[in-house]
Amino acid sequence: MKRLIAVMLLVLLTLPASVALSEAEWTYEIPLSAVLSEYTILVNRNHKLESDYIPGNMVSAEVRKVSSTVIELDAVVAAALQDMFDTAAKVTEYLYRVEDSDGSWVYTAFSDPDGMQLVLKSGYRSYSSQYTIYNNYLARNGGVDDGISSPPGSSEHQTGLAADVLSVDYNNTHQYMNSSNYGTPEAQWMEENAAAFGFIIRYPEDKEDITQVPYEPWHLRYVGREIAGYIKRTGLTLEEFTVEWQAALDAFLMDGGNVQAQLLWESTMAPAAVTTTVLDVYGDDGDPEVSLSMW
Question: Is 216 a catalytic site residue?
Answer without folding.
Answer: yes
